[in-house]
Amino acid sequence: MRVAGGKVKGRTLKGGVSPDTRPTTERVRAAIFNILDPAQYEGQRVLDLYAGTGSLGIEALSRGASWGDFVERSPRQCAVIRSNLEVTGFSQQTRVYCTDAMQRLGALPGQYSLVLTDPPYKLGDSGSVMERIASITGLLTLDGMVVVGHSRHSDLLESYGSLRRVSQRRYGDNVVEFFQ
User: Tell me, what DSSP letter sits at residue 12?
Assistant: First the structure.
């Protein structure tokens, strides 16, 4: 697995060590950042929720994000994220929270311009994650974007609170939806 673009493009990242980890593919990560307006992340704070290997947040940092918070439940995967941040040189502009994502959401520093989330498919309902994100005042900037990846076998609503779907793409079994 490699970083798809930006200043550390091509850098190899460690993959998942936990059986539940399903890293977002390089192709899908590249597609996400080709769709996003660079103003959405350049010089901005980003959140990688259900971070796994940290590849989504690292992709944002490589492309110019100023700060990244990573939330991952598995201690083994948290070690992988920290290692990947060291290898890419982003350790000093990040924080890794090794805890449950749904519980941590309300206690994060907030004001993220971009939230990247690709929960485990076994979680089943990405809608509950979207409801929680939408319910937290101050988590997103006024024009903040939430990018959520999920299985094509699950559906999300058109909106959650003030967040409205602005785009949806399908890549094999993966669906990526953009909410603003």
Answer: B
Over residues 77-129, the pLDDT tens digits come to 999 999 999 999 999 999 999 999 999 998 998 899 999 998 876 666 688 89
Domains, the chain, with CATH or none: 26-179 (3.40.50.150)
Share of the chain above pLDDT 90, in %: 76
pLDDT band at 21 (very low <50, low <70, confident <90, very high): low
State the Cα–Cα distance between residues 28 and 135, nearest whole angstrom: 27
The CA distance from 180 to 163, in Å, is 5
Q: Which of 116, 119, 178 has the alpha carbon at shortest distance from 151?
A: 119
4, 55 in Cβ contact below 8 A? no
Q: What HEC string does 133-145 produce?
A: HHHCCCCEEEEEE
DSSP H helices, the chain, are 26-35, 55-62, 75-88, 101-104, 126-135
Q: Among candidates 118, 162, 116, which has minimal Cα distance to 143?
A: 162
pTM: predicted TM-score of the whole model, two decimal places: 0.94
What is the token pair recorded at 116? 């990247």
| Three-state DSSP class for residue 100 | coil
